[in-house]
Amino acid sequence: MIDLFITYLRNNASLTDGEIDRVVSLSTPRSLRRNELLLQEGQICRQKGFILKGLLYTAGSAAGEDGEHILQFSAEQNWILDAESYDQQIPSRFNIAAVEKTELLVWGRNDFEGLREEIPGLTKFAQQLISRNIYSSRQRILAALSGTPEEKYTSFVRNNPGLLQRLPLRMIASYLGISLKTLTRIRHAQIQR
Amino acid sequence: MIDLFITYLRNNASLTDGEIDRVVSLSTPRSLRRNELLLQEGQICRQKGFILKGLLYTAGSAAGEDGEHILQFSAEQNWILDAESYDQQIPSRFNIAAVEKTELLVWGRNDFEGLREEIPGLTKFAQQLISRNIYSSRQRILAALSGTPEEKYTSFVRNNPGLLQRLPLRMIASYLGISLKTLTRIRHAQIQR
DNA sequence: GGGAAAGTTGGTCATTTGACCATATTTTCC
DNA sequence: GGAAAATATGGTCAAATGACCAACTTTCCC
After folding, report:
1. Could you report the predicted ipTM of this complex, rounded to two decimals?
2. B182-CA/D17-C1' distance, Å
3. Residues ≥6 apart with Cβ < 8 Å to A131
């Protein structure tokens, strides 16, 4: 299973095999059951994770709001953490939990930051990830602002192939910012065609 | 005017006066007229800016959409750039333009990256800014997903005191993802009370 | 100063959305 | 296996929203 991570690093980062070994050597496997929390609102994020298999979601609520919305889904071959809480070691405002049984590698913050000092290529790689992260956040904002619920849904399905089957519809509705009822209606209408 | 920047650095970054001088020495003043573009979609972002006075907005359109939406407003005492385009030197997907007459300091990318290598405290400071940026993006996503148009508007006014007077309503509507008509209605209803 | 453009408000109407409630179906877990 | 919970669909209705069009006001710029 850990090979998935090694392959990922080989393909995406510019690290030597020795450096990769070093990164792997400080990781700890962890597994989450369905609905199990990786990080709870109010806790401080003390570790960085990489998803080997499975699916997580990050959820939070707007200031003064009651309901939670899903901000992000993170599937295998992705890193997972609350950047704000991790970087500044302040309580997180978000929950991160497993949609389905999930296998992770995790690194304690000290270990990982040590690795970054030790391996410049890792810092550079992390930088790229942040840049992509910022970009996808912006796309997400645009998607939330633009279009009808139906357009949002079809665009979600198009951009996240395979995810539809793994998610309860209520989570998709939450992610899109529409009611479950509306989502049902949309799907019903699309089947007709 | 440049003192605004020096004061800002003194209060927010951990730099010596000498380092601050160094940063200032590589900056160039620039001024934008109302509606003038700082960065156009398709161009590569080659500089980093700091707003001394004025107000800018960043706008873009979702993939395959026709209309533009405003992603962000940036007022004085803030940095401005398209991080994705700047970091990777790829064409920007966004427009950045002035809402009103704006005074900036700008740094060419090479100059600024040179400063970052020269001054570790600057890199650390930049890192903090990114972390905050990620956080505010998430807040923005939540705000876009949660609540009625009226809640979005009142929360916008609350969180951005003073901005209301400086922005055309159609920009606020675009930022909130609602129609201008709806925004007018909300305002009308609130005056009644 | 004055003409043109930009910005704002208003009216009407068809459509969509969400709220609430009930019911059917699937999944979970003991 | 079977009860209980979670998930999905359906019906109805009132309310909110956006589209379209027109009028009015303010601002800009020559």
Report:
1. 0.90
2. 7
3. B83, B84, B87, B88
Q: With b meaning 16 or more CB within 10 Å and e meaning fewer, what string describes B6-16?
A: eebbeeebebe
Show the beta-strand stretches assigned E in chain A.
28-32, 37-39, 47-53, 55-60, 69-75, 79-80, 95-98, 102-108
Beta-carbon neighbour count of residue B19 at 10 Å? 18
The residue with tokens 């279009």 is A147
A1 to chain B, minimum CA–CA distance in Å? 31
- A3-127 CATH, one of 2.60.120.230, 3.40.50.720, 3.40.50.300, 2.60.120.10: 2.60.120.10
Q: Is residue B104 a contact partner of residue B52, using CB atoms and an 8 Å limit?
A: yes
Q: Which residues pair with A48 in a beta bridge?
A: A107
The one-character DSSP state at B159 is H
Quote the pLDDT of residue B67: 79
**CATH number for region B3-119:** 2.60.120.10
Say whether the CB atom of A34 is under 7 angstroms from strand D.
Answer: no
Q: What is the DSSP letter of B166?
A: G
Q: Counting one residue from A and one from B, how many pairs have CB atoms under 8 Å apart?
A: 109
**Tokens representing residue B87 in the block:** 């970091």
| pLDDT of amino acid B193 | 64
Cα distance between residue A110 and residue B131, in whole Å? 18
CA angle (A91 as vertex; B143, A77 as ends), nearest 5: 75
Best of A146, A150, A178 to substitute, by most chain B Cβ atoms within 10 angstroms, is A146
Residue B71 has its nearest CB partner, among A61, A132, A141, at A141
Per-residue pLDDT, A63: 74
Interface test with B, best of A131, A145, A152 (most B CBs within 10 A): A145
Q: In this predicted model, what pLDDT tens digit does every residue of B6-50 receive, in sequence order? A: 999 999 999 999 999 999 999 999 999 999 999 999 999 999 999
